[in-house]
Structures
1.
Amino acid sequence: MASKTPSMRVLSRYLLRPQASLHPRCQHRAQSKQYSAGAAGARLNGTVEYDTIPILHHTAKSTLSNPELPADIRKGQTKRINLYTAVNEALRYALQTDERVLVFGEDIQFGGVFRCTMNLAADFGTERVFNTPLSEQGLVGFAIGAAAEGMKPVAEVQFADYVFPAFDQIHNEAAKYRYRSGSTGVHCGGLVIRMPTGSVGHGALYHTQSPEALFTHTPGLRVVIPRSPVQAKGLLLSAIRSQDPVLFMEPKILYRAAVEHVPVDAFYLPLDKAEVLKPGKDVTIVSYGTPLYTCSAAIAAAERDFGCSVELIDLRTIYPWDRETVLESVKKTGRAIVVHESMMNAGVGAEVAATIQERAFLRLEAPVKRVTGWATHTGLMYEQFIIPDVTRVYDAIKKTIDY
Amino acid sequence: MSFRYTSRILRLQRGLGVQTSRNGCRVATNAPVWQHCRAVASTANAEKVLFPGALNSEFTSTLDFLQPSQTQAISTYRVMNQYGEIIDKDIGVETTDEEALDLYKNMVKLSIMDLLMFEAQRQGRLSFYMVSAGEEGIAIGSASALSPADVIFCQYRETGVYMQRGFTLSQFMNQLFANAKDHGLGRNMPVHYGSKELNIHTISSTLATQIPHAAGAAYALKMQNMWSPETEPRIAVCYFGEGAASEGDFHAALNIAATRQVPCIFICRNNGYAISTPTSDQYRGDGIASRGAGYGIATLRVDGNDIFAVRRATKEARRLALHDGGRPVLIEMMAYRVGHHSTSDDSFAYRQRVEVEDWKRRDNPITRLRKWLEDNALWDEDKEKALRSVTRKEVLRAFEIAEKEKKPSIKNAFEGVWEELTEEQKMHVEELKDILTRYPKEYDVEQYEGGISGLDELLAQKKQT
Ligand SMILES: Cc1ncc(C[n+]2csc(CCOP(=O)(O)OP(=O)(O)O)c2C)c(N)n1
Ligand SMILES: [Mg+2]
């Protein structure tokens, strides 16, 4: 039969008339460069330019000027890599330097569906880097047990949307292990659960979600979301070193889109510090992960159009989070906006806004504005209206300043 | 037992508010035997173990671990060999010539649609697609052996089930393009079909979640079958991959299906891979079939390349599933995933090209049926050519029409989350509308049916009383 069937290419050349331009939504890989495709005449939406955006380090000099990096790293080499390669480098370093580190998950042996574990099985052997059966509760529970017996498992859940079978293991087990073990001292620190998170523009209900808020409602967990290759490498290494279980949520659109100069050697970034990405005077924007790029583009337009000055903060560690950096900024600017992809109700924005009104009420010149997903699911055709875009952030800046 | 049973029925009817003129006794006599718990006590000189957890076990003084690796693998049921020859001529194929031709045409249609849509995705005209190559016979054959009223739950690689049940090419295309005519209202990724008329629940990307749903649905059907003995009894059917069978939901589903004795056929498509993961990393038992016994479920392994075997197995499973009111049945349909996992996957990153080519050459459900048809003078090269050309045109016509349709109304972004729009949602709709109105150049709202007025419709909705 196969031989009798005309090849796909021949068939389609004959049958499907190719169109002049590809639909921007239709990249066959999830790592589409388009984040939020603007309409044809758009001035704001679709203006995230990864090649020039100031929140990525486009030169070695810029990377090495980071005061969080230790002195020897700041004198060292850098290499331009994307986010999945940064994750790969961190895993590689951890595997090389600590025999207790294990890396496993669904499909990770051939490199993983997002390529984060490329070549690790070949280089470190399938005793330490291996495929698991298709069961999130199984593989996360397995990781907890291994961690409780002294290993450092880095378990991958294929998509954040599929972490829920493991919810019980994470919320009731990983988070409570140390507490319930009391003076026996047993805990599952050393455990890291990695997962790709967030929207890519065509993931619909189950390849789009950002469920971080469900895990920030759990004492005992650390929830980390890196925004860039440098951050991914440094934060993942800290997560593996941490003695608390860490959920490491990697914005999947950034795996390929975010490219920057990253120190070649290993380094650690703090798990308890937010980072001011851009100083400003009039309004503070607090965000994390992919929306930081949206915010950065919106800030550029707003500062140009309104002559205002906006401070941008990357929360990085979503829980426990750095209240001090946020409050210090808001006390200075008097205005705050929180931006995230997941829905508004009981989201991270609610916690940040509540904290700001509790602790900086008298400094506030405007209500804290939340720019987030709406109270709905991320239907395929409606993602561009649901996920915060440059226009919505731009408008939020305008409204907050004009308040 | 009959008293207990009757009273349970009566209680149920009261509880669910079902009005019926049937009297309890009549129902009870026709009623299935429900699993019931026997309380037993051990006697001092008993030969058998009377522990409540394993009632029929005998004592032994031989220390003998069960070694699954040493037992013979479960056989694979076939009606027809790879040359299209019928093995047991007395039984035959239990399929009329017209039926066989229909099945063949549907398999070809499915494979042509797959080729074209895969390529359409590669051209950027579709965001995603999944082909069924190598598994056409499983989906189409099993669906052909069910009653249209049976309720079906799919994983995603069962496009043939929809096709066999009558999902039209335009219905497929409308879903794939998520246009205004899509049953899913433009909400789901391509290939997440659903059809109320065809009794197939809408596909969810989350693996294995549908398996316990099928058990529960089958329980609902079991009760409804009892309430209306005059209508043809229905069963539930659940499809899933051998990878999905590693999820907790699979195990939970089979166990609860057994304890509640539900009329459900669990059809595992074992195609050798779960994305890149080969079965050797997925399990160490004898496939999925070996698990049936563990749950006390009747089980069969079938050659999925043999559509006659698939049909016969499914028919018999359906009979078993309805016997005595209900019981679950597990069928493991063996296949090889000829295509990539999906359009997001390049399977040559983890398997050899020759492995795939070998399989394609060795055996395939479509070629096998074609051999049988040709041997029976029902098919020839001219017919093949004509069928392919007509089918291609049909697919492309549906494709072109669907591609031109508008996108669904934006109201579908918010509707259907709760039964009615909440106050919070209305606030969100108002905020979105305000943005779309003040920044019209930033959005392509006109591609959506009704443009921005879709949101007005939502805001105009009155609370239903
Ligand atoms: C809960 C969950 N975990 C992971 C995934 C990602 N995923 C999608 S398909 C797939 C493999 C499924 O393999 P199998 O069940 O054998 O079906 P096949 O693709 O072979 O038809 C995986 C891991 C998912 N969709 N849902
Ligand atoms: Mg499979």
Note: The radius of gyration of chain B is 26 Å.
2.
Amino acid sequence: MLLETNGLTRRYAGLVAVDNVDLALKPGGIHALIGPNGAGKTTLFNLLTGLVMPSEGQVRFQGTDITALPAHRRTALGMARTFQNIRLFRSMSVLENVLTGAHSKLSTGLLPTVLRLKSFRAEERAAVAQARAALELVGLEAQAALPAGSLPYGDQRLLEIARALVSRPALLLLDEPAAGMNPAETVQLAALVRRIAQTGTTVLLVEHDMGFVMGLSDSITVLNFGRKIFEGTPAEVRAAPVVVEAYLGARLAARLRASHAATLEVADGPRA
Amino acid sequence: MTLPAWLDDLLWTYQTLIHSLGINGLLALAMYVVLACGQLSLGQAAFMGLGAYSGALLTMKAGLPFYLVLPASCVAPVAFALIIGVPTLRLSGVYLAIATIGLGEVLRSAYLNIDALGGALGLNGIPERAETWMIFALLALSLTALVLVGRSRFGRAMEAMREDPTAAAAMGIDVARYHLAALVTSAVLAGIAGCLAAHQSSFIGPNEYGFEPAVTILSFALLGGIGNPFAPIAGAWFLTLLPELMRDLPELRLALNGIIIVLAVLFLPHGLLGWRMRRTPEKLAGGAR
Ligand SMILES: Nc1ncnc2c1ncn2[C@@H]1O[C@H](COP(=O)(O)OP(=O)(O)OP(=O)(O)O)[C@@H](O)[C@H]1O
Ligand SMILES: [Mg+2]
């Protein structure tokens, strides 16, 4: 198994964001994690990548227990991720962002750096070449010199992918990569994710766009209220009553809330 | 080395001011190193005091030559940087600021109350061994090193963690380790500045390294900027020179630092030299300025 979790749980005051989740991810392919808003998908990503520590449970990555490892160590082991709310280094250039993603692959020490030794120059040159290749893959090579914060929204999402890819991760985690993209961009993104998977990187993605998820994924895990409620192929997920219920339930609850709010508004409104 | 007579005169007349420019430049770099990776430490004056006192004692009591005193004067500042840094760096940023202010006050009362450190009178008669060229050579060396380090994976890591420490950690950057390394580097720079200052003024006292100097050092970087290592030096030189030009208006001089800081924060959010340093080595970026 590439990635395994065992009873993974994260509690916050008054709620269990991730509740006793067992995952087993085989190497290769594209896996999706879906669930209604607030189901715990991002929290699970944060637990896997070490940005949030679990209340209970373990995470194993490529056979090693990484439960106690901080985020930067997990990246060095071969995990990379993007963020649902884009977190680029906005004032740094596009190229510098991608180079920063390669940090764990660079090892030249302080002295060779200050003395500009050959080893330093060779390593930096190789890193720049790889960063440019990653930018080319996502189609941003022409924007290399621009400040990352100046890119349009869709391009910023692509840049996050390039920044994650440059470390050549075994596992790439994408948190809602299509959010805010128009349909044409979403189609291109699907092709990009497929290409990434073909190079041998395992992809785990969270996405609300069901067309995108169903067309792309080899397997899907469904979360609801922090719990894993279903696991299977896209066809199985589509046919599973629990999944439909979870989504319908969430939608119904939202509608009830809305109409309730409307009623309250009428009740509290100015009296005639 | 023989200098033209006019230059010699000039150096002689303004020697103290010229030395202050160099020493304050080093202090500005000490401040820059921590701010550039997103930390707020107010310990630079305290580190400076440790370098000054330990350096002065090594010269006066142990009789060591200056070329040994200078590196040795970094030991105490670095030790205290580690003592403060290791426990606080895992906590949020304000703890470091508070802990470093505390360090300054604790040390001040130590200088005041320990007889061997001269008490309220401080230490007098320190041999004047810090030469002008030494001060400026060390400043140039530090500045060059910071530019070269800034244009490498280290500089990228520093800027990344200043912008977003969480995302930086996800990129594989050991944020806590970098913070500690920056604090230690800052202690070295400030310690050297303190040692140089002690060996050019012949007198040091407990009140030179308290809260007010700490804020002055912070204002060097606030005014100059932290986008590149030249900026804080520009800020330091501005704040060192301006009061000299206003010698005849002593009342104004007192309020000047405060006024400048307020104006800088309001109108120069990126500082006097607001440009941002490229983070790739020369030439490699291929037009990516
Ligand atoms: N730091 C936190 N403190 C308290 N509660 C939190 C925290 N982070 C997440 N939560 C809660 O945990 C639950 C799961 O949140 P999470 O962001 O993981 O959901 P999600 O499935 O990613 O939702 P979305 O689809 O809207 O992105 C939510 O109820 C959220 O409010
Ligand atoms: Mg989410």
Note: Strands of chain A lie at 3-12, 15-25, 30-34, 56-61, 64-65, 79-81, 171-175, 202-206, 219-224, 227-232.
3.
Amino acid sequence: MQSTDTEFLIPSSVSEALSSIALEDAIFLGGGTSTALLYKTRMIEPSRVVWLGNVGELKGIFTSPTEVKIGSMVTMAEIAADREIARLLPGVSTAAGVIGNARVRAMATLGGALAHADPRQDLPPALIAVDAKVSVRNASSSREINLADFYEGFLETVLSPDELITEVTVPILQNRRSSYLRYTPTSEGDYPTVGAGASLTFNEDGKSISTATLVLCGVGAVPIVSSEAGLALAGTTGDDSALLRAAELVRGAVDPQDDERGTADYKRDMAAVFAYRALKACLNS
Amino acid sequence: MKINLSLNGKGMELEVDPMALALDVLRGLSLTGTKEGCGVGVCGACTIMVNGSPVSSCLCLTGTLADKDVWTIEGLAEKMPELIDSFVENEGMQCGICTPGQIVAAASIDSVGASSPEEVKKYMAGNLCRCTGYQTILSAVEDHVAVN
Ligand SMILES: Cc1cc2nc3c(=O)[nH]c(=O)nc-3n(C[C@H](O)[C@H](O)[C@H](O)COP(=O)(O)OP(=O)(O)OC[C@H]3O[C@@H](n4cnc5c(N)ncnc54)[C@H](O)[C@@H]3O)c2cc1C
Ligand code: FES
Ligand code: FES
């Protein structure tokens, strides 16, 4: 590989990182797993790379009875190994633990995993299902974005180039159960044909469902929330026929494409199957 | 750019292109035990250990190794002879092209705390082998985990 004159900066604080990015075509770097691939083929040639590996502020996981906060430089392996996340957010834990292979999980960061915006990624549906919010900052302001509103298209998010993801916050609801399941017909480490993140929140009686969220990846240009499925489950007890009916509604929400992981029709079928299983997994969690 | 790192247990300062791949930089330092297979993070032939974790050197921009503790098969073979023995005793290799990566992955298994055969299998799933059929590799890694 020919060498280049990309400037490589290693800030040690968020404010330093934010002031370093103020240059056209500068990019943030997390674990570098997707950036290295794009750079290797010169699909990107940034003039400056701002690597976040030394920004300690971005590396914590904080759990309280009401919320979980995960810093953007926390790796997939760290999320998958965290006992509190496994207990409170089993779907998020599962998703982080199935991404790629052990090497990808050791390198890939939460910020990179969200900003990469490949619609087949596992973490977004698991996090959207539990109402995750993304905290974002640039040099002059900060904002919070619902992860459900974060994706605009294939590899596109609402982030502007100078915006840094600092952390993700997930509210913890006592009556909510969640899950994530994916289907990979090829090898263990491959992207899924379809993945389903689900959550069911129960009323105080503990029996009837107040809200349900079902989110699919791999079957559209962005993660897809099936609001019809959610509405169909509200008020039910989550009995099998209600789950099956809701899962069938997913077919109308997804927009899959033919590729090596299956035809569009096959993916639509699998989306319904895995939507049902993810809902069922919530009940068993 | 100059970076400091510890490579196979020795502290050093290296002049590197931070955007070069660690795979190319290490092989350029005559550490040719690290192999390139797929070049896209899938096969594991290029596995190195960074701060105890397995890393695809084909996806690792060298700048990110600043201040890290980096081990390649050369260093680990000296440091962990019993792990090499375990691969030999179990005949965990045939052509050998994937073997350095398998061994570096095995050496990094503590990073995820895998211990049951199922956990070992899941952890090693990202290191592909076209020869052995995997069972002998898994046995070698299980033996290693059992004694450590
Ligand atoms: C072999 C392989 C297999 C894979 N398999 C799967 C899979 O099965 N499932 C799956 O979901 N994914 C899979 N992936 C994709 C993987 O999830 C992403 O490559 C990874 O999450 C990106 O994280 P990173 O930290 O390495 O990103 P980087 O490469 O560091 O960054 C990615 C993008 O995010 C931006 N960015 C990084 N951090 C921030 C931040 N804090 N704020 C703002 N922008 C930021 C960067 O500028 C860049 O545009 C696979 C990848 C590989 C290489
Ligand atoms: S060469 Fe790096 S994983 Fe295959
Ligand atoms: S021994 Fe030949 S590829 Fe593994």
Note: The helical segments of chain B are 22-28, 73-79, 81-89, 99-107, 117-124, 135-147.
4.
Amino acid sequence: MDSLLLRPVPGGLYCEAGDFYVDPTRAVARAVITHGHSDHARAGHGAVLATRETLAIMAERYGEGFAGTTQALSYGEGVTIGGVSVRLAPAGHVLGSAQAVVEHKGMRIVVSGDYKRRRDPTCAPFEPVPCDIFITEATFGLPVFRHPEDAGEIAKLLHSVRLFPERAHLIVAYSLGKAQRIIALLREAGYAEPIFLHGAMAKLCALYEKLGVPLGALRPVMGAPKGELAGKIILAPPSALGDVWSRRLPDPVACFASGWMRVRARARQRGVELPLILSDHADWDELTGTLRDVGAGEVWVTHGQEDALVHQARKDGFRAKALALVGYGDEGEP
Amino acid sequence: MKAFAALIDALVYQPQRNLKLRLLSDYLACAPDPDRGYALAALTGDLDFPHAKPALIRGLVAERCDPVLFDLSYDYVGDLAETVALIWPKKHGANTALSLGEVVEVLRETGKAGLPAALERMLDALEPAERFALLKLITGAMRVGVSARLAKTAVAALGILDVNAIEEVWPGLSPPYETLFAWAAGTGPRPEGARALFRPVMLAHPLEEKDLAEFPPTDYLAEWKWDGIRVQAVSDGGTQRLYSRTGEDIGAAFPDVLSALPEDAVIDGELLILRDGEADSFNALQQRLNRKSVSAKMLAAAPAGIRAYDLLFRDGEDMREHPFERRRGALEGLIAARGSPRLDLSPLVPFATWQELAAHRASPPSPAIEGVMLKRRDSSYMPGRVTGLWWKWKRDPHLIDAVLMYAQRGHGKRSSFYSDYTFGVWQGEALVPVGKAYFGFTDAELKQIDKFVRDNTVETFGPVRVVAHQDGAGLVFEVAFEGLARSARHKSGVAMRFPRINRIRFDKPAREADTLEALQRLLP
Ligand SMILES: [Zn+2]
Ligand SMILES: [Zn+2]
């Protein structure tokens, strides 16, 4: 059933009663933005409602004038747009990420955006919000995706760093969220060495620190002598893997931090030597568990492996459908 | 099982041979018996479980998983063992540690009826990476990029043994190789070998014509190099075996050859199709290769034989320490005494000067000759490629000019370079791919080609870049190769042997590269 409150249209999810979109994929008059990844947060909207952190990330990526007007909302704080009440609840995906809770005439819909359920030292944990309709992603919506414990993956990385002191460890990871989370996890594991950054990572790391997420000593790769990078950890965006840029590193061990690394063929295809299974998305158990936690009668699946999740949701007694929204997940994983 | 699973995973992702070796040696040094022996057998392909087959795995997973979810997952992952390893549902309280030795013993010793339940218990007990290793044991191929030779080299690295010493005793051993590890560590005696063993073969270095000036012709004997398969024929106390150069037993497909062997001898030679003393081409031999058995019709149509080069053992005497000249004399006597049309001698090529030998090489008496071999008269038979004793002086390779069409990234140290090339020749107005090459150029040239690829990419398909090769664009390679055969599997209808980049012709317009017609004229 298409709700009058929120329905999928070519530009994204549209709320007719309040005349606004959630995470629109094209420029609109009024948008609620769940988080700063580029497939959800685009420049050029008239008015944007989001958390303070998401607005800061968008300003960093697109420049101060990325929208006509902006309004910051704290988690739990509510506003009314054309009679529709909107509030934001933490999604646990990246810093500032939120679920949009939209309510009108006794009907409550939660747009979860991208989310995960495990602990992340760089952002607030996901909060299950009971609702009538729950709109979920399904990036890792297959039962082969069960992410292992973060601590084990970080230990695997540090073991390799000790094993190959003459080589640099090049970790490729998405520059918003994943990179900062890896740094924070390394710090929690007691790694105190300076961590070297590709130029594309530096600004967002600085912003995280400004927003209260401490990351320890960070240095630019640019200008560091090759010899100094031996035995060190370097962070770069995925485009750097196998790129000319990587030739400045001493015999780099290519590491890719992503939920996709669960599947060996995917990791080998990318020429990865050390796959790190670290994801900012819910795995199969988290997805199916979340459906039970929010207890919605109906589930809509936006993007990813919709078929499998819809199948399982129906088996578990939910009414479920795939929205087949296009335009999400374009950065690969975010 | 944890340590073995970690080893398998690390090997899967490690492209560099020396680092693979380090991983293997570390594991073999730390793992206890019998685990390490079974791991070694898994890597050398010497583990076989008569009842544990892939169909069993499919049956089990069908009982434990939703079939729709399994099919969607299998479609996505693409590998049965990996899909099952990842999708297998957790059973609370079932997780226990199992050693590789325990797993192998269950797989070996459980009868057909009990095996499904036994396998299910093990899958419940293990972690995902361990399940993957277990399922790979059952599906057979480990596919971790480790050859049997490399695995044995890692055993040798445990002590001071040479890998060739291990190859010699290997056929007499079976998993879990406890006596081998004890010998390698210096705590046990050399294990007893089996009958009719393979001995590591001696190989020749390629010769550059300019090197010849340094060698006195009188120090060397020359013989023809035949274009067949290098083999070692072993006859020992009534057991006959035929081994490939790498020690693989290929005798089952060649009963005609085995029955021609003399008693108690080890002969090094070339396997060929021999008709009335005439050697046929490599293509003729190919139909007899890679078979488990051979029909009488095939035996009559393509009779095989050995053209002998050398003699390693005779009547129990190890001849390998003797000079080549002496071994050759003994070989001539042995072949003459046996008098079989399936076993003859590769004749010596008489010469006094290098010019004279070059003239013979330029016009060999048979099309099945691919060059000449030079062997120092005083050379003993030493395993491997020993410098300065044996040289192969091949006929000049064929050369064609072809156009670069597609490029793909290399592995390991080359992973940031486009170093694997597909090239083509003209068929009318279009290029048709005729081969692939990934060596023959220097590091400096690789950088130049890499830059050309990046600057001239017109399309990308996954890891493959399509390099501009139309309307006047394109890079020409001079490609060298050893021979050409008809091939139904290739769109061009031809397949090259050993193609490599001989020169890069930045100067040559793509339109002036060779045509498929010109290439086809080189077909035998
Ligand atoms: Zn997304
Ligand atoms: Zn995202």
Note: Residues 324-338 of chain B form the longest helix (15 residues).
